[in-house]
Amino acid sequence: MKITIVGAGFCGLATAWHLLNHPQFQFASIQIVDAKGIGGAASGIATGLLHPYVGGQAKLNLSGWEGFQATYELLQIASRELKQSVFSDGAGILRIALSAKQLIDFQNCALNHPMDVEWLTQEKILSWIPGIAPAPALWIKKGLIVYSSLYLRGLWNACQKRGAQFQKQHIHSLQEIENNDYIILTMGAQTSFLPEFSTLPLRVVKGQILELAWPDTIPPLPVAVNSQAYIVMSKSKRTCLVGATYEKKFSSAEPEKEIAITEIMPKAQAILPFLEKLPVVNSYAGLRGVGPKHLPFIHRFSSRHWILTGMGSKGLLYHALMSKQLVKAIAKSI
């Protein structure tokens, strides 16, 4: 059996891993195809905030903890493969309440999920992170920072050891790869650019992030901070990542630093005012595919064609769980 997966991001590599470990596909030939290489698109630049309270209202996402656990299992596999951790499981994630609506929403989250999150006073926050805006916060205690490119490299190495192959190729139409028993599209936003899937219910959104040089005179943030923007230390602790834009209209898929600065920095400076003085050392951009109701979906296009897409900003949370469900669905259909 020959199976080709188009897309080498979170969903593509997770799907390959679950296929390689499913008894029904143990003798299958698994090939991943991507024009930009392993993690070369949006997944590779993802800032990597993993928790099940994604969204402005901090509500527990549908199957949120199941998704978290499924991703955590793959993080462990990638870490073992690289013999180093691909994530930071330190102090969790802080969601700072800077508006009246956030104050209500975040407090409700703390009341509804006391085992997972905690409401912290502004005095506690100020003692924890000097220089931060004086506001209370929701503390997601189990939240992780995932170093996305490192994670993808580790997961790919694990897949490769099990026999997966990779080909760098731009797919313009399914006709180019029709000599397969199964074709699985995990291309994110790029899925709708194929002529066969131009009518999928998928919105394409551009997201940009900035990388700022972190000063030697200020200790690195002990925790990821999120409000209307997020601020996350890089693995080296010499820079921080700040994001993100949510551009429904854009003229280019490439980074546009000035647009990113204009949209991101006022929101980030509302959290940490001293960010205004930090130089921008890089900018990144990626396209996200957003599904109906902001939820990912599995679509069976034909007996041989399957699609997993629509992750939006929840790719890290849902990719492992959804890819496992996809593989089970394919196995059941045979």
Automatic annotation (TrEMBL):
This is FAD dependent oxidoreductase domain-containing protein. Gene3D superfamilies: D-Amino Acid Oxidase, subunit A, domain 2, FAD/NAD(P)-binding domain. Residues 3-327 form the FAD dependent oxidoreductase domain. GO terms for cellular component: cytoplasm. Pfam families: DAO. It comes from the Bacteria.
